[in-house]
Automatic annotation (TrEMBL):
It comes from Sesamum alatum. Pfam families: Glucosamine_iso. Its EC number is 3.1.1.31. This is Probable 6-phosphogluconolactonase. Residues 18-249 form the Glucosamine/galactosamine-6-phosphate isomerase domain. It comes from the Eukaryota.
Length: 259
């Protein structure tokens, strides 16, 4: 039977002097993976987060990558999305569109935004159905190890409370083991209605980058990269991230200051 625990994870922790250096390294890392996966399988599936990640990706849409990356082969997904209209200031799609997608020629048919006309429950069902359709069409593979869809690269951020995607420490949906996409209507961080990939999907990725910058994340980074224990409570969601292939933490000096 398929297990939801990846067979092995290689974890790398990269520390940089500044957020600017993280942005430079993240652009090269992503462009190199793009070349590798397009050569290997003809496409590159990238899962975006919202938050500060999009700004840290800024170097990827500059020279030399703007012209050297084969954007026509990229497929874009969201690890989580706020259930608001796509042109709403809180939308992760809008954030990515402004800071990244509008600057490079990824075909619009390869950009998988949520259906913003649906309720959170229906939007999660709809996104999961669309992923299943992509699997049936052989556009997305399934992991032999976990039985969940296998994306090439997940680009994740983390909140000071240890949440990743929209999987929050105090909410039960973080423990979902069967669904690919789930939802929440009472997110502790606004806006309350959100959909999110589940851990089995996140952890089935070939590569995961945890992109963590800023002093407000130093304590949580220490927990995540230490023994993973928060005294008196269950492990934080950020401690549950483990790629089927390789997990790379990109930290600036401030985020790494308590390691
Ligand atoms: O609400 C969210 O928060 C996390 C972390 O965001 P950041 O601003 O602290 O970087 C983000 O990864 C997620 O996609 C977003 O919806």
């Amino acid at each position: 039977m398929a297990s939801t625990t990846p067979a092995k994870t290689k974890t790398k922790v990269l520390k940089f002097d500044s957020e600017e250096d993280v942005a430079v390294a993240l652009a090269k890392y992503t462009a190199d993976l793009s070349e590798k996966y397009i050569k290997q399988k003809g496409s590159f599936s990238v899962v975006l987060s919202g938050g500060t990640l999009i700004d840290t990706l800024r170097k990827l849409v500059e020279s030399p990558y703007k012209d050297s990356v084969d954007w026509s082969k990229w497929l874009i997904f969201w690890v989580d999305e706020r259930v608001v209209p796509l042109d709403h200031e809180d939308s992760n799609y809008l954030l990515a569109w402004r800071g990244f997608l509008s600057k490079v020629p990824i075909p619009t048919s390869n950009i998988y935004a949520i259906n913003d006309k649906k309720s959170p429950a229906d939007a999660a069902d709809d996104y999961e159905e669309r992923l299943k359709h992509l699997v049936e069409s052989k556009i997305l593979p399934i992991s032999d190890v976990t039985g969940f869809p296998k994306f090439d690269l997940m680009l994740l951020g983390m909140g000071p409370d240890g949440h990743v995607a929209s999987l929050f420490p105090s909410r039960q949906h973080r423990y979902e083991k069967k669904r690919w996409v789930t939802f929440i209507t009472d997110s502790p961080k606004p806006p309350p209605p959100r959909i999110t990939f589940t851990f089995p999907v996140i952890n089935s990725a070939s590569e995961i980058a945890m992109v963590i910058t800023g002093a407000d994340l130093a304590d949580t980074t220490k927990i995540a990269l230490g023994d993973g224990q928060t005294p008196g409570s269950t492990p934080l969601p950020c401690c549950e991230v483990s790629a089927e292939g390789e997990l790379t933490w990109f930290l600036d000096k401030d985020a790494a200051s308590k390691l």
